[in-house]
DNA sequence: ATAGGGTTAG
């Protein structure tokens, strides 16, 4: 050591032998040379920079009184190469402050940092500087400018500079091509690729690698194959980087067999290549293959998963709702102290949310050191997906308090939360924010807004949004058709379906569910049967269980109980509780005890899945006065441990949502609500209202029935609404279950007495009461 | 070269 210091000329060679473990030694040496000469410091800084030890390089650099331009460039390049990019720009600015004139080598590096940060304002300043120094003709500088403008999104300026270049080498061509490819302007990218070849320059592997993502995103399989063939001819298709690009392109084109073929040709597969293949399987919904390949990578090939690998594989667990696998991966990450970056953390949150364990999702969110928009959005969507819209809104408040801004994906979580809650005022706020922030250019956002207005009872607003959209996808049409359906506007629903067919867009399986249920609710048996047979024959959509259930509903609702029964038995699927449940509901409507009993037995054989069906059967017995049988069914239900989920209704008044469960007396205004209900009951009875005997458990007095029914949650919510809103305002109440027959008839009277529009959204549709009539025509 | 949160129906 001492010998080295005494003989500084030997120092550099001794540094070459240093490795990470000897950094300390290196530091000691450089402390000793600090006061010697700047020439050595220059070399030392360059050496550290070349080794990517930026902090050490910076430490030395900062001690040099007047670094040469070359050294400034070295430092800026080091930062531009591997970040932090901001530091490259910072050094450039300091260089100018100190009066050092940048050279033509400075610009490509600092511009690269601008590209990485998408910092176009700084980029423009640098461009000005280039012009004042008269360096715009330099190939390297102009290429860097092209790259910066292209990456930052100003493709026009990039193209202008590129066109003005007298000499364009392959790097310049790659810069402009990768710019267009980066923004997925597929046609322009392909055009430039052709022009490049016309100019006599053959694309190299960098060119190929930069265009492949755009090919994949554009789903341009034929182009992709041509590029693959070109790569084979030029003998770089076996290069890991090219092969990774190729297999990613193939999987984005849903061509997994080619992707795996390319994958298998690579001899020296690295983690990126494995991750790309695993990601490809996940993209194509081949979750089992993704998991198998992951095991292969980690167990057989002893490679460590990178954050990218983990993000992909966690997504596979989420899609499979394989909580065990997801948890074991989480444990593995903790045990092997893999650095949990924010992306992986967000994948974990999403996995927990998709598996329905929101406690774990929120628990992990709270542990996260750096939470971002995605973390919160995952939680918000998770709560909505798990049926806790109100918690989604609460988390959103927490997100705002923590200063993290929302983006359009957050909004796409918030809007369905408003839909579920029928929270019109929150929903309208979301709509407003979406306009202000420019989200409404996004089709998915508009779709969510259409759904929100429809579920909040404002179907006309939905249609306005739908009509004004620039671009509609199949979800837009489906949402609008379904919205008409739940509002009982079946003519509009079916006519929109015909418009969709005329528009040239292909209906999908969801469209047909919407159409079939529209037919079923409006009693259009023949039309429903027609579309059911047509969907597989003409529209090339194979019917799923849900479609069969729609058909059962269609037949049974119209009174064709026997036909529905045999339809269920002929289904190509094992009939489930829902299929039988649809028939059972119709048995109740059509008071067919014999069929009801048969169906009820089938359901009981299927096991403990549905409670509503027990209630239904019990009600069927009660409706014909067979109280003992009704009680027996209820006792089986109790005996087997089924619990009826409580009826719950809510109403939004002045932006506050008030919720009530059946018999609820806990609201501060409970006394006046009760008075209102009693007062209404008297008036209703004067007009001929009679409590429906079939709905309440057997052998209680009429008086008592009235009182039980009086406090069904929807009635409490309506009374609350009457008391707390001006008479000109319509009332919208939302209920978690289906409305009961008695409430349905009572609300008709209430609308007549109070002369108010009352809308109830129950679990299946809207009931719009006005002047004693409901728009469902008592058929629901 | 690979990666995270996202709209409709049941």
Automatic annotation (TrEMBL):
GO biological process assignments: RNA modification
Family of this protein: Belongs to the PPR family. PCMP-H subfamily.
Keywords: Repeat
InterPro entries hit by this protein: DYW_dom, E_motif, PPR_At4g14850-like_plant, PPR_rpt, TPR-like_helical_dom_sf
Highest taxon of the lineage: Eukaryota
Segments forming domain DYW: 688-780
Protein name as it appears in the record: DYW domain-containing protein
Species the sequence originates in: Clitoria ternatea
Record bears the keyword Membrane: no
Gene3D superfamilies named among the record's database cross-references: Tetratricopeptide repeat domain
PPR repeat feature ranges: 68-102, 138-172, 372-406, 442-472, 473-507
Pfam families associated with the record: DYW_deaminase, E_motif, PPR, PPR_2
Entry GO MF terms: RNA binding; zinc ion binding
């Amino acid at each position: 050591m001492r010998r080295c210091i005494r003989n500084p000329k030997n120092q550099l060679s001794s540094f070459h032998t240093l490795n990470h473990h000897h950094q300390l030694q290196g530091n000691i040496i450089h402390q000793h040379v600090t006061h010697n000469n700047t020439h050595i410091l220059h070399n030392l800084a360059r050496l550290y920079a070349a080794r990517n030890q930026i902090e050490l390089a910076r430490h030395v650099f900062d001690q040099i009184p007047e670094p040469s331009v070359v050294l400034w460039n070295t430092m800026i390049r080091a930062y531009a190469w591997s970040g932090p990019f901001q530091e490259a720009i910072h050094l450039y600015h300091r260089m100018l402050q100190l009066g050092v004139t940048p050279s033509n080598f400075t610009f490509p590096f600092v511009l690269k940092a601008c590209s990485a940060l998408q910092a176009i304002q700084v980029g423009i300043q640098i461009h000005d500087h280039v012009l004042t120094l008269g360096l715009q003709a330099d190939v390297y500088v102009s290429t860097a400018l092209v790259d910066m403008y292209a990456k930052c999104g100003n493709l026009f300026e990039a193209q202008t500079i590129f066109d003005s270049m007298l000499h364009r080498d392959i790097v310049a061509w790659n810069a402009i091509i990768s710019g267009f490819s980066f923004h997925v302007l597929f046609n322009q990218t392909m055009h430039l690729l052709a022009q490049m070849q016309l100019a006599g320059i053959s694309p190299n592997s960098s060119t190929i690698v930069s265009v492949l993502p755009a090919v994949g995103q554009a789903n341009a399989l034929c182009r992709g194959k041509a590029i693959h063939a070109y790569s084979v001819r030029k003998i770089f298709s076996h290069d890991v980087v090219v092969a990774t690009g190729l297999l990613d392109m193939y999987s984005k084109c849903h061509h997994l067999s080619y992707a795996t073929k390319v994958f298998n040709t690579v001899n020296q597969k690295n983690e990126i290549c494995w991750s790309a293949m695993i990601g490809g399987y996940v993209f194509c919904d081949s979750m089992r293959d993704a998991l198998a390949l992951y095991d292969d990578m980690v167990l057989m090939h002893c490679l460590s998963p990178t954050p990218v690998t983990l993000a992909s594989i966690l997504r596979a667990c989420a899609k499979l709702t394989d909580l065990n696998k997801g948890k074991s991966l989480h444990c593995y990450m903790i045990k092997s102290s893999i650095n949990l970056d924010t992306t992986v953390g967000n994948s974990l949150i999403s996995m927990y949310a998709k598996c329905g364990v929101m406690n774990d999702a929120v628990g992990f969110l709270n542990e996260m050191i750096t939470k971002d928009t995605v973390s919160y959005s995952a939680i918000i969507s998770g709560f909505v997906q798990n049926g806790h819209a109100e918690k989604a809104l609460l988390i959103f408040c927490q997100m705002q308090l923590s200063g993290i801004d929302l983006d359009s994906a957050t909004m796409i979580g918030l809007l369905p939360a408003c839909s579920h809650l029928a929270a019109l005022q929150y929903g309208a706020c979301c709509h407003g924010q979406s306009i202000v922030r420019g989200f409404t250019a996004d089709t998915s956002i508009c779709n969510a807004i259409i759904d929100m207005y429809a579920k909040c009872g404002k179907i006309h607003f939905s249609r306005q949004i739908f009509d004004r959209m620039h671009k509609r996808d199949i979800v837009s049409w489906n949402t609008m058709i379904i919205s008409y359906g739940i509002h009982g506007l079946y003519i509009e629903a079916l006519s929109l379906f015909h418009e969709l067919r005329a528009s040239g867009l292909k209906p999908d399986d969801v469209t047909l569910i919407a159409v079939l249920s529209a037919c079923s609710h409006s009693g259009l048996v023949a039309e429903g049967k027609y579309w059911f047979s047509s969907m597989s024959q003409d529209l090339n959509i194979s019917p799923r269980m849900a479609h069969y259930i729609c058909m059962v509903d269609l037949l049974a609702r119209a009174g064709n109980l026997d036909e529905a029964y045999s339809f269920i038995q002929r289904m190509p699927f094992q009939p489930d509780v829902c299929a039988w449940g649809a028939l059972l509901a119709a048995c109740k409507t059509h008071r067919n005890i014999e069929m009801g009993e048969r169906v009820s037995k089938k359901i009981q054989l299927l096991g403990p899945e549905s409670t509503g069906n027990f209630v239904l059967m019990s009600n069927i017995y009660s409706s014909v006065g067979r109280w003992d049988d009704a009680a027996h069914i209820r006792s089986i239900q109790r005996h087997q441990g089924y619990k009826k989920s409580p009826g719950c209704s809510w109403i939004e008044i002045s932006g506050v949502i008030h919720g009530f469960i059946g018999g609820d007396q806990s609201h501060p205004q409970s006394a006046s609500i009760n008075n209102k209900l009693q007062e209404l009951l008297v008036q209703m009875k004067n007009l001929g209202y009679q409590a429906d005997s079939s709905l309440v458990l057997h052998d209680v007095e009429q008086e008592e029935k009235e009182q039980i029914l009086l406090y069904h949650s929807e009635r409490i919510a309506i009374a609350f609404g009457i008391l707390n809103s001006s008479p000109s305002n319509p009332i919208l109440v939302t209920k978690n279950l289906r409305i009961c027959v008695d409430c349905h008839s009572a609300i008709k009277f209430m609308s007549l007495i109070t002369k108010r529009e009352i809308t109830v959204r129950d679990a299946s549709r809207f009931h719009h009461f006005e002047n004693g009539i409901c728009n469902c025509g008592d058929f629901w």
